[in-house]
Amino acid sequence: xxxxxxxxxxxxxxxxxxxNTTFEFGPLSDYAIELSGVTxxxxxxxxxxTALGDAPHWITGFYDAGRIRGVEMSHLALFAMPNVxxxxxxxxxxxxxxxxxxxxxxxxxxxxxxxVDAAMRLAWRAGVVLTGVSAGSLCWHVGGTTDSFGPxxxxxxxxxxxxxxxxxxxxxxxEQRRPLYQKLVADEILPPGYATDNGVGIxxxxxxxVEAVSESxxxxxxxxxxxxxxxxxxARIEPRRL
Length: 242
Fold this sequence. Notes:
Layout (H helix, E strand, L loop, with lengths): L6 E5 L3 E3 L5 E3 L1 H9 L8 E5 L7 H14 L2 E5 L10 H6 L3 E4 L4 H11 L1 H10 L3 E5 L1 H4 L4 E4 L7 E3 L9 E3 L8 H10 L6 E4 L3 E6 L2 E7 L6 E6 L5 E6 L2 E2 L1
Parallel strand pairs: 1-7, 4-5, 4-6, 6-7, 8-10, 10-11, 13-16
Antiparallel strand pairs: 1-12, 2-3, 8-9, 11-14, 12-13, 14-15
């Protein structure tokens, strides 16, 4: 049962500390599962950890989180070789694809090398809900700010561009994020776009903004665009509390 329309929930969150495990799904991840519309069976959720080099402890952590949540977990790994015979078929068989954070530059390179970019687009258009955090948020957009190249943030401008916007993640917790993102939009290196504080997500149906949602109080999303005189203008979006 696919989502009603192509759906992306792009976030700066989605996980919480677990009681007996490293982490569990948080409200943002629960919302992504809800958006898939699955009833009568366990939702199928695929974790993609390319941005962290398919780190085994993260894969194990997601299987633990999925067991607690009651979903049918799988994962897509590309290192040292793909772990599934048909990447496209595997992704199309999911209800939710959850993409982890890390190096968005590395993620994009590996996805293009293995055809995951095209497979993700097919899954998205087919109604599989795409979600994730940080790199797993940036990747769906035109670009954003990244620490893929070192501690001094740099722009990434070759995102998958399923969405025609830029994206700013960790907007309230990493001091370089907000000023650099605004400068890149003001200088037209990035198009206008949406930014999220930690714990906040942006829901898109097809390529349209629908709402901002949050796992906690006193957090926000933002729309950043270039004013006619050349400066960046930031508009706060109050999220719906999950």
